[in-house]
Amino acid sequence: QVTLKESGPTLVKPTQTVTLTCSFSGFSLDPGRVGVAWIRQTPGKALEWLALIYGDGEKYYSPSLQSRLTITADTSKNHVVLTMTNVGPVDTATYYCAHRRRFGGPEDFFQHWGQGTLVTVSS
Amino acid sequence: DTLLTQSPATLSLSPGETATLSCRASQRIGSDLAWYQQNRGQAPRLLIYDASNRVTGVPARFSGSGSETDFTLTISSLEPDDFTTYYCQQRYSWPLTFGGGTTVEI
Known about the structure:
The structure holds two protein chains of two kinds. By secondary structure, chain A is mainly beta. Chain A has strands at residues 3-7, 11-12, 18-25, 34-41, 47-54, 59-61, 69-74, 79-84, 93-101, 112-113, 117-121. Chain B is built from no helices and eleven strands. The mean pLDDT of chain B is 97.
């Protein structure tokens, strides 16, 4: 059974760096095949994909946020970490991590999600 | 980026009616599109993948169609739990993108 759970600070001040952790079970990161993505949802509802990492370290980032994001994976601990620098109020959102397995089928989309963690950016 | 435009933003219907939701892509994406349902306070739930394939366990009243730039999610005989928000998402090209959502309300 695939499960994911996000953790991190709930309140962050503007200009700070936020670090979010996705702890998962039921699968292993697989080079080029199985990965974990971060997706956020603002209070205004929109879903925005942020970054994705596969088991061999292959990474993809949203171009609009790439300069502020770093995604890393600790395969021994089954963790994926997203770091976002210089946050502002517009980064206030619920942050989700989700599982993706390439090469077809429903898991080539986001079939398994964490419950999400709300991060508020405010002074 | 592949922009996904969902319409309408809000759809007002009654239980038992049929909902027709649209997702239009700014470029051709083949069948690389999924539909999600999201209830308030919950993560999105994958309903349809590859434009027209229902995920195991999704009721048959949910169906997807379309290809390339025009896609449709049809929900026939709406039930009370169906009145919520739906999103489309493409995996054809990076960055992965989502539509802005359609809310089906009573």
